[in-house]
Amino acid sequence: MMRAAPTVTVAPAVASPQAAIQRASSRTGIDFNYLLGQAQIESGMQTHARARTSSATGLYQFIDQSWLGVVKRHGAEHGLGWAADSIRQTGSGRFTVADPATRRAILSLRTDPQVASIMAAEHAADNKAGLEQSLGREATGTDLYMAHFLGLGGARKFLSAMQDNPSRTAASMFPAAAQANRSIFYSPDGRARGLSEIYDRFAGKLDRGAQLAGGSGAASGSFSVQPTVETRHYAGLDVILGSGAADGDDTWIETTLANLNVVRGGARGAGRTTLAGHPVDADRINALRPTPETARLAYLMLANLGA
Q1: Catalytic site residues?
Q2: Contacts by 304-307, CB closer than 8 A, 24 or more apart
Q3: Are residues 106 and 253 in the same domain?
């Protein structure tokens, strides 16, 4: 007997894809202009866009397997635990969902701009970390788009080869991608494009896409993942503070934390502390990855402020 698909609960709808992308940028620290440019290139900012030749769907044109993979990795962080728990990865690396109705429900989330945007931002953050580890430098927006286009392994291969020989033709390195995307790898007269030429064309497309979608700056250049709220460190806790936290006064902050019974002694040595009587793994808390512990702290701080 086939069971019904789960009820899908997501955040309230936003006014536009741009607003969804801004929210995703704020929650992950991935550059807003980059995410805008990517969405413009992929779908023309159309939330229900579907490719004719593949399973690519939605604002960021995730194919089925890529979508299931990113939801498996990050869904639980953003209220999609039911989806993440339903996805399994086989020994060959393929992502599967046992129940067909549940699979359809998960894949349909690609057309929700908020879910699509936050998953695209998380995917970009994963790629950024992977590229920087192998390249030994800060990743640019164009680097991230290469990872979106070729996959992380393909982007590493492309960028490393470009560093050694910028004029090397790309089609011979990526024959399958070249066959499926001839206009990218070849000029109109049939000339095979070099690595740096393809890279520069993508950079230009990202910047133009961001401008068309209402961005305020370049999408192709370097950027650092930065918290969008102020953070201060107390014994290993990245305490999330609103901009109105007594104008960032350290004394007020420390007093507030004391009043909230944040037990700080020995947290770093043992890797554990307590928050209002609840155990907290201090070493794992990250301001860019909200957890029940940090959410509880934020709630208690707001309550203390009378918000």
Answers
A1: 42
A2: 304/256, 304/259, 304/260, 305/244, 305/245
A3: no
